[in-house]
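Hello,

Following up on my earlier ticket. Below are the two sequence lines again, exactly as submitted.
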Amino acid sequence: MGDILGLVAKRLGLGLIILLVISVIIFFMVELLPGDIAEAVLGQGATPENLAALRREMGLDQPAIVRYLDWLSGAVMLDFGNSIVTGASVSQTIGERFANTLFLATYAAAIAVPISITLGIVVALLRNSIFDRVANVATLTSISSPEFFLGYILILYLAVKTSMFPAIASLSSDMDFGDLLYRTFLPALTLVLVVTAHMMRMTRAAIINLLASPYIEMARLKGAPPWKVIVKHALPNAWAPIINVVALNLAYLITGVVLVEVVFVYPGIGQALVDAVSKRDFPVVQACCLIFAATFILLNLAADVGAILTNPRLRHPK
Amino acid sequence: MIKKNDVLLKIRDLKIQGYSDETWVDIIKGVDLTLHRGEVMGLIGESGAGKSTIGAACMGYARDGTRIVDSSIEFDGMELTTATEADRRMLRGSRIAYVAQSAAASFNPAHKIIDQHTEAPLQYRLKKRMEAQEDAMELYEKLRLPNPGEIGFRYPHQVSGGQLQRAMTAMAMSCRPDLIIFDEPTTALDVTTQIEVLAAIRDIVDEFNTAAIYITHDLAVVAQMADTIKVLLKGEEVEEAATKEMLDNPKEDYTKSLWAVRSFESPQRRRPTDGTPPLISVKNVDASYTGGEKVLDDVSFDIYEGMTVAVVGESGSGKSTTARVITGLLPPSKGEVLFKGEPFPPSFRNRSKDQLRQCQMIYQMADTALNPKVRISEIIARPAAFYGGLKGVALKNRVDELLDLIELEPAQYYYRYPPELSGGQKQRIGIARALAAEPTFIVCDEVTSALDQLVAEGILRLLDRLQNELNLAYMFITHDLATVRSIADEVVVMQHGKVVDQGPKDEMFTPPHHPYTDLLLSSVPEMDPDWLTTLLEERGVDNVGDAAAARIDSKDAKVT
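Thanks for your patience. The regenerated structure is below:
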């Protein structure tokens, strides 16, 4: 087990380094944009004098490297400065919205992951049958339609025409959990439709890839029924690629929800990002980007660890 | 008690087709086979003869991409070709079991050995889990596996190849089947390990009076195991007879040619006595892979110009690592390699073009050593252009010359791609590529191991001819002592990264030997059907394979 802990520690360290590099990139990308925060704050009424005064006040006259280190040390403590537009603390504004996004992602994942893995196993078992083809076409259709389009279709049929679900996923603090699930069902369903195909097809491919292995033939020649060959003999060896694609899709559920949140007016971090970009609210943009990057790194790390944990050679060293 | 004469398996006019190039091609062209209870039949033939396909067909199983057509396969009164898939499946594992070639690949890496063992008995509800596990341990003990009570609870990768192969035989026995198909069960093993597995298989098949079909390409092995032998060639039966009769008195020409293969022997050359330094001299070399344990420990030997030094030893003994050190792929951690008395830079990166050209390699798997997407002409032309600086017509002439040299018609092969060639032809291309650099020394790393005996012999003859014509020195890495006998001038025996014995071939093959050399030599199966029995009587069943090797190890430890 010591080996595994070492491997995990190494991956974690690597993840931190990558995050650091990304923070540099994000900070200096924003730096490259024309104009600075002071100009954004003062807008049309800026005179050279009050611009200079504000810059001094906000520390903008310092060299970029100093400001980066300043920002970084804040970011480590989850303090991303204040929003230019509202003046409120960025972490507070984003924190709540990020929680909402996480909730939606978890909701969608809780539906999508079991469904797509089960479907993947079933289509691997019934490969090249009608069911396999139908499942393939259906999931491919859903993945190839843009998510805003899927969202509007769902709104049209499930909200407008049948009034089964609310078209707008607005939240309030006094809602109970069931109500919450009900109100956010359409955005969650949209996300499910978007990510299922990828995970299902990867599960299918990972399993079918193994079917030519000698140990699968051995299982067949031991008289194992087809479902057992797949579930007991192929699946345990197929986890690594499946976990990887699941992690990638989970990351997408968090970072790629912008359009879905906009369509359903859902108060998540994607909306916050869109607002911040349009209002040139740099601290918020930086914070959002860093959170997205951290999510990606963390989930990929989890996938790596998962792949290690499902590999018997690493779990049970000689 | 079951009567010995009961017919267990009756196959009539077996035809199996494989799908290739969008048509169905006959692989097995009407083979008959009758097997009685308790009988062991050996199926022999070269690769592509259809041995394994017939083996699978005995279970009513057609591999992916093949199909059984208008044949009759009758197992204990049940016609398998017309039975439902479910009925056929009910036989597999319970009444007909299968032992695959590579146990390491055929055990599922994700489950413990014993869980795979008990799978079939549990599925057929023959035993409860605890009973099945106890039975497994009993079988492990019968097959002389170390720690029979514990070994099953390990994962396949934690157990050695020879042990896995025995565990797989135990697994095949788990439901006490009437018939076991052994598909080349010892081909992937070292000679010393092979004996243990052969002895174990033979004992257990005898004890339970199980019928068996033993598939192999090794005549000496089949002679130990089978009551009757059936020889196959390209999907057709050549002949069938009782083992003794088949060995003493083969009727068909093809069978006779198989028997005669081991006759090639190149005359032994001697070291020059005029004091010329050796071409390659490995001096006190230690080596290890990045940060790992020492793989080579104080290895020293010389290779003289125009001579063949065979390096023998089991897998993991450091043969290929030594080759990597000589070619500069793995710089040694201690010691050095001399070329004609001058030190060779340890890493190939620091060697000059002229130094690089001196050492070329030919690999075991020609399939993976040749880029499948590059034409033959280009594969051979690249080193010729790189080392010789040839261009245009001169280059083409050189490639033609090389193709001539390896006995392939230039006009016919010039524009082909490797996948269009047979295994032996691919290996010849590998040889031509090595020759293109005009080397003085070639490392041949198990170059004939993946080839059939007849084809392998062709390659050995070619290498021998080239050696005479071009005055080449070979380092011939092999674990096959028959190959050593036919081509070597000198022999180096390696074990656990050390050279344990070395000398001219004739001395090495006459006693007294180093104990390890003795173990290797005596472990090579001979055509005599009583060889295994005699050997086991002489040595005792507990003194073969790993156990015997371990004993030698401890002796060495005492001496040093």
